[in-house]
Design brief:
Elements: H1 3-30, H2 34-67, H3 81-88, H4 90-120, H5 127-135, H6 142-152, H7 165-172, H8 186-212, H9 216-224, H10 229-258, H11 261-266, H12 276-286, H13 290-321
């Protein structure tokens, strides 16, 4: 029962407060000269959102940087000691290596498959159905995807009835079952395959939108000049779609850097499958070492910011062209 008033505040109070704020803003703007209103209005309208960003994003990020310079209990200043741990500890180095594997293979496969599906299904009668099927995994959570594929990868010793789908298929053709989530380094690629299955639909939808933006006259002109489908794809479609491909690729890189849910559910970083985000979780909630957890978070943030900056630059370049 205590949650009902809180829900009412969220459902009714927040919209009313927002409307009241906007009314006050417009009344205040009416007191300003006409030439000043256009300059001030955007900042006043964005002020609540900027305040939320400062409180829930900027301040926690700065606080995390401060905590990374302290010990496990956040009481004694240790300087860069926690960052030394991040770049010298064997487990952390393994996590950094696995994240590089994720970045290379996850990004390349999702973008390539997304582009392939977008091109193959373009202008066919069943395009929507095909893209809907490919996009369907995005409708479930990454945790659910991890649980589903954990059953798919389930392993039983040779001679025992296999409950995992993949090993059931393998033994059906006379081969030995394989411990997909245990045998290294193949288990990392097994985890990446789950992420690819989940994200390739997203890449397909975005890349398909970019493909639709190419004028049909350009492709028809290339065909008239005698270019085959492969040459058209390589020398016309890919160059014209390069801005969209770059945006999708950088988005996949960011996800690869933050990979957590699938790894946590399926292996919890065991069997040499540790990644940065999962190690950060363990340091904070399992080992209660807040300094190291904060340091890992700062490293992860430092790795993501350049990619985000590149993404923003691409968006600005596209807007300028338009």
């Amino acid at each position: 029962m205590d949650r009902i008033p809180l829900a009412l505040v969220a459902v009714v109070g927040v919209p009313l407060a927002t409307a009241g704020y906007l009314v006050l803003v417009e009344r205040a703007l009416a007191l300003l000269p006409d030439r000043r209103r256009g300059e001030v209005r955007p900042w006043l309208w964005l002020a609540p959102a900027l305040a939320l960003l400062l409180v829930f994003l900027v301040y926690p990020a700065l606080q995390t940087i401060v905590l990374s310079l302290y010990d496990a209990t956040s009481t004694h200043f240790v300087g860069l000691e926690n960052f030394g741990y991040v770049f010298t500890d064997g487990t952390m180095l393994g996590a950094l290596r696995n994240n590089v594997i994720w970045i290379v293979f996850f990004t390349s496969v999702t973008v390539a498959l997304g582009l392939l599906v977008a091109v193959l299904t373009d202008r066919v009668p069943y395009e929507r159905v095909a893209k809907g099927i490919v996009f369907l995994p995005m409708a479930i959570s990454f945790v659910a995807a991890g649980v589903i594929w954990k059953f798919m990868y389930d392993y039983r010793p040779p001679g025992v009835a296999q409950t995992g789908t993949l090993d059931a298929l393998v033994t059906a053709v006379g081969a030995e079952p394989r411990a997909w989530l245990i045998d290294s380094p193949g288990n990392n690629f097994a985890l990446i395959a789950v992420a690819v299955w989940t994200w390739v639909g997203f890449c397909t939808v975005i890349l398909s939108a970019g493909l639709k933006g190419i004028a049909p006259e350009i492709i028809e002109a290339a065909r008239v000049d005698g270019a085959g489908e492969w040459l058209i794809f390589r020398h016309v479609i890919v160059p014209l779609m390069s801005p969209t491909i770059a945006v999708v690729a950088t988005t996949m890189v960011i996800f690869a850097l933050k990979a957590f849910d699938i790894v946590y559910v399926m292996t919890n970083g065991n069997y040499d499958t540790e990644v940065i985000a999962n190690r950060m979780y363990k340091e904070m909630f399992n080992f209660r070492h807040f300094g190291r957890a904060a340091a890992i978070a700062v490293v992860l943030l430092a790795a993501i910011v350049p990619v985000m900056w590149f993404n923003v630059g691409r968006f600005r370049a596209q807007e300028e062209v338009r």
